[in-house]
Amino acid sequence: MKKLATALLLTTLSAPALAADKPMPGDAAPIFSATSLSGKTVALDQYRGQPVSLVFLDSLCPMPHWPDCESELSKVQKLSAKDKKNQWVGIVKGFYIDESWVKSFAERWQLKFPMVWDQNNEIFSQYKVFGNPYQIWVNKEGKVVSRNDTIQSSAR
After folding, report:
1. What's the CA gap between 136 and 144, in Å, rounded?
2. Percent residues over pLDDT 70 in the chain
3. pLDDT digits (tens, 9 = 90+) for 25-47
């Protein structure tokens, strides 16, 4: 019982700390650089001057903890395909999979934008993203505009 009480207390005390360092609208978006599935470097800095949608995904769809993942992935594919004014970058959670699995996932869902396999979940951690799909819009100045647990066609 004492261990449970301690764990609950630590969780309660650390929740504000976790929220405090989460990049929120108006904050500078954390800079990252990673290799895409096509072998090219994807760096947030390369999108300066244009809005970019960072879409955080888990390639283990379908799964019980991600209801309606098929419809959300279909939505991502359709919105990104018709959006010519914004850039899109997919960041795929790294746990329990390998790069070939992520490539197969991107092909199956026809995700044509740059896809990064976040092997050690470093980008997920930088942005404090714990669920998926999750979208963060970054404006042309490199600031977070919105954080959404539903996919949007543009920043709101």
Report:
1. 7
2. 84
3. 999 999 999 999 999 999 999 99
Amino acid letter, 112: K
CATH number for the region 24-148 comes to 3.40.30.10
Asked if the bond preceding 16 is cis, omega within 30° of 0, the reply is no
Query: Tokens 């969780």 — which residue?
Result: 11
- Mean residue pLDDT across the chain: 86
How confident is the model over 70-119, as pLDDT tens digits? 888 999 999 999 998 999 999 999 888 999 999 999 999 999 999 999 99
Facing residues of 53 across strands? 88, 137
Each domain of the chain, given as residue ranges in start order, spans 24-148
Question: What are the angstrom distances between the C-alpha of 15 and each of 10, 29, 73, 136?
Answer: 8, 21, 30, 21
